[in-house]
Backbone:
């Protein structure tokens, strides 16, 4: 498996949605993530796996434009012109965040407005993007609540009154309502009970397929990776040690670390 | 009586005309010009410490002090009335420091400094409204950090403001902001109109008068030039609407003015009267009579001009 | 014109007379003189000078007299006067190393060049009433005995001692050593630089800064401070008039300076070292200077790449809310009439209640709505 790719060549590949070349971030002398390069194609779901401290969350924060890496380039081809997300003005990056991109946080509290109703949470992106018809906003919000299996009667309740699983589903609706091209998810099922996780995974799988979303999912849970992702990147100590099609990586791991990871999971 | 003699007279120190030194006035006028050039944009300015307390109109006072001259006629209102305590206090301040000619008549005034109301009588070209503003940032209650709200204005990110209105309608069936109701100025900046009742918002729309806003404690000045679009935020299917009362003014019978509620006894008796005291007096002088004028007169709640 | 809301100029003028009467109190008690306040209420004068941002003990005493001892009202009087004063220019930077020391203590060294000078302090008093002070006549003259030896001529500042070893964070002026920001002339923007922060805190409310400093110490902030040094004494203020071109002495002012020593783990570029929190205040005001130095260090969080999680680390929070004259004005403005706004709220709440009642009556027989989704 060859993980050395030529960044120049990637950046020029017009078919990919996201081209990542040589992204590195350091915390003092410690490596956060180092020299990560890959391409993501439209509709593709990429998993980033590794133990905690492997740098996968750092990488996600860099890719999503939350943190600026110390080196590297991320090109996004959502619109007509490819955007270098670190060199565009903050304004453009913020616009991207509420239109073509979405971020699903591990803790729904980080992604939701806890004192705004479920309907307001889902409707915010629509209003961000200029919607000014209350009835239509509400209609869309209701539609999305149903798609994430939240009863219509809860539309005016606040997320505080929701269970953890419902909060997470609400966060997903809030992100997907603007029909983004690319969604970043950080341990989307973390902190949930196993039965709740299963339901959420099922839902995510359906939504991602139906909408043809491209997604980058960070998880330490290989079962989640197996279920949701097409392709997998394994990280250790801030570096990508192995990547390939998900089934291939999980069933026939080459790198010793990946072998260790997969063997630690009894039932995949 | 006058506090603004020049140094040299009696060799005693004294204050400059209209209290502020000329350099400061120029600084404020520069901020005002910028504000007029960018309607609704909050211009930071070097707000001075004033001999009146912060929150008591120091922003409006500084704006008035920067623009007032000997030819002006000043009207000061608080809650619509010329004789409320703070209006009296501010009027006295300018009488002392600027020899201001003052008036209660809206149509005679060249400068109207106000807290919480716009007069009922239509404003004219050439008049200047000076609003006292406690909180110039309409987004502050949604986002406490100044660094962030400035970005939101810079990039016209006003979705969150709309979410607030959405929440109101979802919970109460309507927008529950009754005063300081946010407006969109010139189709670009969301602006706090100061805590005027939303009843007064439509008076700002394309007003022929120049409207200046001073926030002393928060150190911001903003403006709406004459004939500028000022639209109250709403939804297409929940249009902005203003307060209305079931009965007209008890004293002058006006059915189209903003009314204050006066509790007249301890039996729950109430009277609704114009908040704009000059408007009410003018109407009574013109012979308009409200249903409770006689009662109010008998209770000595009002001097019945018609009788005297 | 209805009497119910008539403010009336006469009533306002009457309040001025009443406050004058209340200020004077019982006329059989002799009136207090401004000089008495200045000499015998020196610490109160110091606080008024700090929060009023004007070094003038006579005016501070007058302000306290006029304000009946209300420190914030007195500071307000000072500020409103200060703002009208013409500005001739800026003084030369003060050199607190040359301070004529009255008190100087360090908690980081048992002994150090210049020694520990306890000076006048309440630190070692027992807080027991001295009922003798109730007597009008002073019980004999109090005279402190002069020390056997004069103080050392040189009193190096503790951070300078650490700095000589390279252990203390260096503090160089910004590029080009520009004239410091003047927050009484220019609006503050955020993030605020250190000159702005120190200025704001110098005039900030002692109680507010004390609370914030305390919060840092208790755990709402990641700080392990040591009092490197507190010193109190007189410093000369020098000014260079343009037409002369050399410094002339404008006189002495009393200052309190606190340098707090804090740990810092270091970063990629900087080895572990100590960092400084700085406090400087007019008069003898140790509590103020110490609180200021704690918060100063906390506010450096951004410069050191520390998380700014707690109130004392957030410049907007500290700077906007520490000015007690502004805060008092805005809090007390709630006493002003608000009945126009209130009328709007009254109208709204009555209508919403009415409409709610109507809805409930209408749906009385459809009360059983679908149960909310059960929590998972």
Residues:
């Amino acid at each position: 498996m060859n993980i050395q790719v030529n960044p120049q060549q990637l950046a020029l590949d017009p078919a990919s949605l996201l081209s990542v070349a040589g992204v590195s971030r350091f915390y003092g002398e410690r490596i956060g993530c180092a020299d990560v390069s890959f391409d993501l194609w439209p509709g593709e779901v990429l998993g980033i796996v590794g133990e905690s401290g492997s740098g996968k969350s750092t990488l996600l924060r860099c890719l999503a434009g939350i943190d600026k890496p110390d080196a590297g380039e991320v090109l996004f081809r959502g619109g007509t012109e490819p955007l270098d997300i670190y060199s565009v003005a903050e304004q453009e990056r913020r616009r991207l965040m509420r239109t073509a991109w979405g971020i699903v946080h591990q803790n729904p509290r980080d992604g939701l407005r806890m004192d705004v109703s479920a309907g307001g949470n889902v409707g915010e992106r629509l209003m961000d993007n200029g919607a000014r018809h209350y009835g239509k906003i509400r209609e869309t919000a209701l539609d999305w609540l149903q798609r994430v299996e939240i009863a219509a009667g809860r539309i005016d309740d606040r997320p505080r009154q929701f269970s953890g699983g419902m909060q997470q589903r609400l966060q997903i609706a809030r992100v997907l309502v603007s029909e983004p091209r690319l969604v970043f998810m950080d341990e989307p099922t973390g902190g949930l009970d196993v039965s709740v996780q299963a339901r959420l995974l099922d839902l995510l799988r359906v939504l991602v397929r139906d909408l043809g979303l491209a997604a980058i999912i960070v998880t330490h849970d290989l079962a989640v990776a197996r279920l949701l992702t097409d392709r997998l990147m394994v990280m250790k100590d801030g570096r990508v040690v192995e990547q390939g099609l998900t089934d291939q990586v999980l069933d026939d791991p080459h790198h010793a670390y990946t072998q260790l990871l997969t063997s630690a999971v009894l039932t995949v | 009586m006058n506090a603004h003699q020049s140094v040299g007279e009696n060799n005693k120190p004294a204050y400059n005309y209209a209290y502020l030194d000329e350099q400061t006035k120029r600084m404020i006028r520069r901020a005002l010009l910028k504000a007029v050039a960018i309607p609704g944009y909050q211009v930071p300015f070097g707000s001075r410490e004033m001999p009146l307390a912060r929150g008591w109109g120091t922003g409006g006072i500084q704006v008035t002090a920067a623009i007032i001259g000997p030819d002006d006629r000043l009207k000061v209102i608080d809650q619509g009335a010329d004789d409320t305590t703070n209006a009296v206090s501010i009027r006295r301040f300018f009488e002392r420091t600027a020899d201001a000619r003052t008036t209660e008549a809206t149509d005679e005034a060249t400068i109207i400094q106000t807290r919480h109301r716009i007069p009922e009588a239509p404003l004219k070209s050439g008049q200047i409204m000076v609003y006292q503003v406690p909180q110039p940032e309409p987004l502050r209650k949604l986002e406490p950090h100044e660094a962030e709200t400035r970005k939101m204005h810079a990039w016209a990110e006003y979705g969150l403001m709309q979410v607030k209105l959405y929440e109101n309608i979802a919970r109460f069936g309507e927008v529950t902001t009754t005063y300081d109701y946010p407006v969109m100025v010139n189709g670009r900046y969301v602006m706090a109109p100061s805590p005027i009742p939303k009843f007064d918002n439509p008076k700002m729309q394309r007003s022929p008068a120049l409207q200046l806003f001073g926030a002393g404690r928060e150190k911001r000045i903003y403006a709406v030039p004459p004939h500028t679009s000022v639209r109250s935020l709403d939804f297409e299917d929940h249009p902005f609407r203003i307060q209305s009362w079931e009965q007209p003014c008890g004293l002058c019978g006006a059915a189209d003015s903003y009314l204050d509620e006066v509790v007249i006894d301890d039996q729950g008796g109430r009277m609704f009267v114009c908040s704009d005291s000059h408007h009410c007096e003018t109407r009574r002088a013109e012979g308009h009579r409200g249903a409770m004028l006689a009662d109010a007169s008998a209770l000595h709640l009002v001097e019945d001009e018609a009788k005297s | 014109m209805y009497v119910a809301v008539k403010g009336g100029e006469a009533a306002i003028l009457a309040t001025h007379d009443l406050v004058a009467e209340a200020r004077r109190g019982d006329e059989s008690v002799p009136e207090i003189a401004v000089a008495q306040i200045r000499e015998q209420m020196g610490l109160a004068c110091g606080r008024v000078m700090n929060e009023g941002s004007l070094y003038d003990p006579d005016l501070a005493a007058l302000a306290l007299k006029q304000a009946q001892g209300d420190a914030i009202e007195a500071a307000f009087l000072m500020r409103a006067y200060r703002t009208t004063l013409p500005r001739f220019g800026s003084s030369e930077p003060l050199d607190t190393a040359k301070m004529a020391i009255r008190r100087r203590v360090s908690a980081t060294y048992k002994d150090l060049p210049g020694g520990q000078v306890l000076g006048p302090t309440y630190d070692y008093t027992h807080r027991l009433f001295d009922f003798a002070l109730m007597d009008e006549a002073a019980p004999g003259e109090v005279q402190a005995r002069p020390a056997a030896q004069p103080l050392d001529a040189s009193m190096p500042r503790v951070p300078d001692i650490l700095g000589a070893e390279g252990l203390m964070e260096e503090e160089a002026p910004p590029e080009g050593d520009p004239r410091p920001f003047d927050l009484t002339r220019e609006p503050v923007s955020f993030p605020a630089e250190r000159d702005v922060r120190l200025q704001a805190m110098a005039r900030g409310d002692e109680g507010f800064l004390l609370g914030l400093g305390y919060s840092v110490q208790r755990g709402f902030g990641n700080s392990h401070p040591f009092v490197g040094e507190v010193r109190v004494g007189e410093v000369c203020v020098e000014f260079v008039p343009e037409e002369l071109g050399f410094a002339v002495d404008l006189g002495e002012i009393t200052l309190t300076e606190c340098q707090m020593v804090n740990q810092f783990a270091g970063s990629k570029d900087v080895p572990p070292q100590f960092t400084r929190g700085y406090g400087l205040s007019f008069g003898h005001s140790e509590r103020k200077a110490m609180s200021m130095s704690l918060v100063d260090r906390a506010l450096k969080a951004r410069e050191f790449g520390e998380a700014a999680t707690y109130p004392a680390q957030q410049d907007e929070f500290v700077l906007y809310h520490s000015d007690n004259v502004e805060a008092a004005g805005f809090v007390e403005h709630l006493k002003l009439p608000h009945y126009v706004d209130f009328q709007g709220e009254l109208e709204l709440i009555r209508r919403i209640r009415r409409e709610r009642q109507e809805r409930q009556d209408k749906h009385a027989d459809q009360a059983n709505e679908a149960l909310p989704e059960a929590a998972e």
User: Anything to note?
Assistant: The two ends of chain A are 23 Å apart (CA to CA). The first helix of chain A runs from residue 7 to 12. The beta strands of chain A are 18-27, 30-40, 45-49, 71-76, 83-84, 101-104, 182-186, 214-219, 231-236, 239-245.
